[in-house]
Design a protein that fits this description.
- The chain has 790 residues and is mainly β.
- Among the domains are: 96 residues, no CATH class; 148 residues, 7 Propeller (Methylamine Dehydrogenase, Chain H).
- 1% of the residues lie in helices and 58% in strands.
- The protein has two helices and 61 strands.
- It has a four-stranded antiparallel β-sheet with strand order 1-2-3-4, with no helix packed on it. A four-stranded antiparallel β-sheet has the order 5-6-7-35, with no helix packed on it. A four-stranded antiparallel β-sheet has the order 8-9-10-11, with no helix packed on it.
- Strand 17 and strand 18 form a beta hairpin.
- The radius of gyration is 31 Å and the shape is globular.
- Its main location: cytoplasm.
- Keywords: Cytoplasm, Repeat, tRNA processing, WD repeat.
- Pfam families: WD40.
- Belongs to the WD repeat WDR6 family.
């Protein structure tokens, strides 16, 4: 309750129609909290008013709501440190000022003849519930009230223990003696369906039908597990909603792997084949593929994937397949788990084997108890679960919380029915039933927002147009897309525990590498064309020394070991520079790391690292202003520096390089001395360095550089500084001259950027194929490049 840090703003919001006074508070925790101010009774002398929290909304990423505007207590606009603008409209049917009637009204508990043991939704408004006394109830939620009516007499086998699973229009109930009952929406009876002969441990219902037009008969798959049984039963049932009946079809017995306790289930029927996917309490997923002529029972799984969600429960499975994927025997499977992640997997089915591969799995910004997911009518993925004492619904595409309810936490009975605007949530607290409804999302944002703190690095995908990643001091990495003149956050990567220092894509765009403090180095696998996601991201590997010291990996260079060979079996050569002046080169392939060579510099900290095109040597930059060339002695696994060349008076903060076949390698550096240096490196001659230095290139330290275009004998690069100026330079190279006389530099453009503390830049594709310049720091800018001519 209340804010967890400093409160920046407080406003009154009076609603004349209701005659009530509200107080809105906005804080450092990026939350907006609505309170109601009420007069107390005369007995409470000295305390004339009572302040009660009605609801809290987290509208921004990171910290701080810095600005706001309130329009007659009806509309509120907020601006946060993440650069997002958010609107709360109090006049909406389910907005904050009505939540006292809609969201907090359910705290007037619904008292029945006994405690509700279990319940499940059977439609948008109806639930089937059972009490500890074995009494089945039908509950109808309508507006702010609930109507309860008995379905049948008390059933002895439901007393003290019962479980329920439901889908659109139907529910199934089981108890301690093994009888399964069916219930059809809008009827007043339970219908015995089958008997298993022993206590039912779990009921799971898969509804492969997506048609909501009221098909008169609909096939369903009901999975039944029993206590102390290693076999699960999948029963095909057909719902005839017009007659209010459920017909039992064929049973299929599934042999469960050792220690496999089923917690979730999904199925798909196509071309005479049935695919069933089971999730377990230990984080594993088992897949069963059954053809129409298959008669052997019990059926063994065709594949079992271990620890998909670590050692935590797999809480929900949803199968989704596009027509083109079905033709290729591919299935997309979504899953959630109590490890705090949402995941997407690819199943490839063939006559000989089934392969299972995880294409997307990321930690969500709430949890770790992620309890379910749904794909709504608009194709948006919604996941829900618990954060502390709140139930939270999160939109994956929008990267936003769309609903939150103060319910007391995860340890209770509850049910949720998803809806495009939120949904219906029912929960038990202190032996009483409560419910809440949200049909409209109570807030909107102008954009998904960025980081809560300043960005330290940016990397643009070399393959996917408009795709880029940013890393910040808030420890997050965000994968974004630039389209139609705006930014959209696709995913937030939360694995680092310190600020992100450096980002780099692989040459083919299939990998993203990141580094930070505590020797953190992560390898992210990127998958394109994912259904409903677009881009899939998994953390493929963490460097084995991550977290072993307080050293920062300030920069690195990751290249395929075989040039222009981007096949799956091509390893990486990764060189990292550390804050203690050490340098290490690693071989990375298929989650395996091996040290190639290491070395030490002097007492200055290394800040940049760049391989040569042929991997024969590498060049580093440091805080002493020197460029240093290194060679590797493979026999002794030792990196040794062979040449030093001073460029700047103090630290080199940024560096880029490009190759010129006539003169060798060109290094462009930006320094803490406000200067820019263009250095020619003849790599076959260890002492051959020539530098053209441009002092006072900026009015402050030069923190970002990027090459934007190359042509024969010339190239263009951009520089940015803490002085909030972005400058474009043209460089001509004349091989007929000697030393620094080869280079001629001209300033082409000089503009102001609103981005403070610029840390990094990248070249990005704009609409119409035009080249843009992405500027990152405290915010993001994109500048269209002018026509570059001599």
């Amino acid at each position: 309750m209340g804010h967890i840090s400093r409160i920046w703003h407080v406003r009154f919001a009076h609603h004349p129609a209701q005659g009530e006074v509200y107080i809105l508070s906005f804080g450092e925790d990026a939350r907006c909290i609505c309170w109601i101010l009420e007069a107390t009774s005369l007995e409470q002398a000295g305390v004339p008013y009572r302040l009660t929290q009605l609801d809290a909304k987290r509208l921004h990423n990171g910290k701080n709501i810095w600005s706001l505007a309130v329009d007659d207590g009806i509309q509120v606009a907020t601006g946060g440190a993440d650069g997002a603008l958010a609107w709360l409209h109090f006049a909406g049917a389910k907005s904050l000022q009505f939540q006292r009637g809609q969201l907090s009204h359910p705290r007037q508990a619904l008292v029945t003849g006994g405690d509700f043991r279990s319940y499940a939704f059977v439609g948008q408004k109806g639930l089937i519930a059972t009490t500890d006394q074995g009494q089945p109830f039908r509950l109808i939620l309508d507006g702010g009230c609930c109507q309860a009516s008995t379905v049948s007499d008390s059933l002895a086998e439901l007393r003290g223990y019962s479980i329920i699973t439901g889908a659109r229009g139907v529910a199934f109930v089981a108890g301690a003696k093994g009888t399964i009952y069916s219930y059809v929406e809008n009827t007043n009876y339970l219908q015995p369906l089958l008997t298993t002969g022993r206590k039912v441990a779990g009921l799971f219902l898969s509804d492969p039908c997506t048609d909501t037009t009221g098909d008169p008969s609909r096939p369903l798959d009901l999975l039944i597990t029993n206590v102390k049984s290693g076999v699960a039963v999948c029963c095909n049932v057909v719902l005839a909603q017009a007659t209010g009946s459920v017909t039992k079809g064929d049973d299929r017995r599934l042999c469960l792997p050792d220690g496999f306790v089923v917690t979730s289930f999904a199925s798909r029927r196509s071309s005479g084949e049935i695919t069933m996917v089971l999730g377990s309490r230990n984080g594993s997923i088992a897949v069963y593929t059954i053809s129409s002529h298959h008669v052997e029972q019990p059926l063994s799984p065709t594949t079992v994937s271990i620890a998909v969600h670590g050692q935590e429960t797999v809480t929900q499975l949803v199968i989704f397949s596009r027509e083109e994927e079905i033709a290729d025997n591919n299935i997309c499977l979504f899953s959630t788990g109590r490890d705090g992640t949402f995941a997407a997997h690819k199943l490839h089915l063939s006559s000989t084997r089934t392969t299972f591969s995880t294409k997307h799995q990321l930690q969500l910004p709430f949890g770790p108890n992620i309890e379910g997911l749904d794909v709504n009518d608009h194709g948006d993925i919604r996941v829900w679960g618990f954060r502390s004492r709140q139930f939270v619904v999160f939109d994956i595409a929008a990267q936003q919380e769309i609903m939150s309810v103060e319910c007391g936490g995860v340890h209770r009975n509850w049910a949720f029915q998803s809806h495009n605007g939120g949904g219906k949530f029912v929960w038990t607290k202190a032996s009483k039933l409560y419910f809440t409804t949200q049909e409209l999302i109570p807030h909107k944002t102008a954009n998904s927002g960025g980081h809560g703190r300043e960005m330290k690095c940016v990397a643009v995908s070399p393959v996917v147009s408009g795709l880029f990643a940013t890393g910040a001091e808030d420890t997050d990495i965000k994968v974004n897309r630039y389209e139609s003149g705006s930014f959209r956050c696709l995913h937030t990567l939360q694995k680092h525990v310190t600020g992100v220092q450096h980002l780099q894509w692989s040459a083919d765009g299939r990998y993203l590498f990141s580094s930070g403090g505590f020797e953190e180095f992560l390898v992210w696998r990127i998958t394109t064309n994912m259904p409903h996601l677009g881009i899939g991201v998994t953390c493929e590997s963490r460097h084995p020394k991550s977290g072993t010291s307080d050293l920062r990996i300030l920069s690195f260079d990751a290249q395929y070991q075989r040039k222009n060979n981007y096949e799956e079996d091509t390893p990486f050569h990764i060189t990292m520079v550390y804050s203690d002046s050490t340098i290490r080169s690693w071989h990375y392939f298929d989650r395996t790391w091996s040290l190639l060579a290491d070395g030490d510099y002097l007492t200055s900290c290394l800040t940049q690292c760049l391989h040569s095109a042929d991997h024969r040597n590498l060049i580093t930059a440091s805080t002493d202003g020197f460029l240093v060339m290194w060679l590797s002695d493979k026999t002794q696994q030792k990196l040794s520096w062979v040449a030093r060349h001073r460029v700047h008076q103090s630290a080199i903060l940024s560096a880029v390089s490009l190759n010129d076949a006539r003169v060798g390698r060109l290094m462009i550096t930006g320094g803490d001395d406000n200067a820019i240096g263009v250095t020619l490196v003849a790599e076959r001659e260890s002492e051959a360095f020539w530098t053209l230095l441009m002092p006072r290139a900026h009015a402050a330290a030069v923190t970002a550089l990027v090459v934007v275009k190359t042509r024969e004998h010339r190239f263009w690069f951009a520089s940015a500084s803490i002085d909030q100026r972005v400058k474009l330079w043209r460089v001509k190279v004349d091989a007929g001259k000697v030393g620094s006389e080869m280079v001629d530099v001209k300033l082409v453009a000089n503009i102001f950027t609103a981005v403070a503390d610029v840390s990094s830049m990248g070249k990005i594709q704009c609409e119409g194929g035009q080249v843009g310049l992405l500027v990152a720091g405290v915010g993001l800018d994109v500048w269209r490049m002018p026509q570059l001519v001599d």
